[in-house]
Hints:
Strand order of the largest sheet: 1-2-3
Number of strands: 11
Shape: globular
Structural class: mainly alpha
Number of helices: 11
Oligomer: single chain
Largest sheet: 3 strands, antiparallel
Order of helices and strands: HEHHEEEHHEEHHEEEHHEEHH
Amino acid sequence: xxxxxxxxxxxxxxxxxxxxxxxxxxxxxxxxxxxxxxxxxxxxxxxxxxxxxxxxxxxxxxxxxxxxxxxxxxxxxxxxxxxxxxxxxxxxxxxxxxxxxxxxxxxxxxxxxxxxxxxxxxxxxxxxxxxxxxxxxxxxxxxxxxxxxxxxxxxxxxxxxxxxxxxxxxxxxxxxxxxxxxxxxxxxxxxxxxxxxxxxxxxxxxxxxxxxxxxxxxxxxxxxxxxxxxxxxxxxxxxxxxxxxxxxxxxxxxxxxxxxxxxxxxxxxxxxxxxxxxxxxxxxxxxxxxxxxxxxxxxxxxxxxxxxxxxxxxxxxxxxxxxxxxxxxxxx
Length: 332
C-alpha cells in the first residue's frame, strides 16, 4: 500500500495520468514540478502508455485485497485516459507515448506496452463486469496478433510503426515478447478464442528456444533479428529471467501449456542459484553470459519481479522459494 500511495500522490491533477518524469519532491497540486527538467508546456513525450497501464494492474490487485475505492477509481481514470488519448481508432492498438497534456503523441506501437494494456483491460473486466473493457482489450490483443506476431517459429519485435506494416527488431528482448502475450493469455481464458492461445503458445516457445542459453543457463538479454536469434548483448539481466517464471507459469495455468511450467521452474532455479544474494538478500541486476562476472548493484524493479515470479511458484514445488520471497519483501 505504500507503493500504491506513491501512485496516488503523483497522479497529474491537471491533465490526469502518470509521467515517467514524476519526482517525489513535487508539492501537492503543482504538476509543473513533477516534471524533471521540462516545463508544463513541454512537447516531450513523457507519458508512456506503459505508465498508464501497468499501474492499473497493481492497483486493481490491491483493490481486490483491500476494497479501497481509491485504487479502483484511479484505475478507472487511467483506463479512460488510455481510451481517450492512446487508442488508435484507425489502425488499432495503442500509441507508444504522449506529451503531458495529450495534444501530441508518438504513434508507434510497442509490444510490451500493448500487452500490458490488454492485460489491464481484461482485469478491469474481471473486477467490474463491464464488458466494454473486453472490446478495448481486443484492440490491444488483435494488434499483437495481426501486426506483431508473424508465424510459428518467430517472436514479436519491440516496436512497429503506426499502422503495423514496419517492424523494428533492434533491442528485442524476451520480455518484449512475453509481455506482449499477457493480454492474449487472459483473453483466451475469458473468451476461449483459439487465435489468442495459438499465438501465445508459439511466442512462449520462441522465447525459450531463442533466448535460453542451453550451455550456461539463463535468458540472454537482446536480439536484433528474429530469423536466426542474433544475440546483441551478452548480459543476462535478472528481470529478463525471473519475470518469465510467472509469465510461463501463467501460460501453464491458463493455457494448459505443460512445457511452460518446466521452463518457469528452470528460470526460477537459475535466478536463485546465480542472481540471489545469499549473504545480504536481494537480487543482483545481472550476470555475464558465461556466469563469470556478477553485476552486484540491486534495482527495485528486479526485486519486485523476483517476488512476482517466486510468489507464483513457491506453493507448487520448492519451499526454498517461499523463504526467499519473504526475505526479498523484507529487503525492499
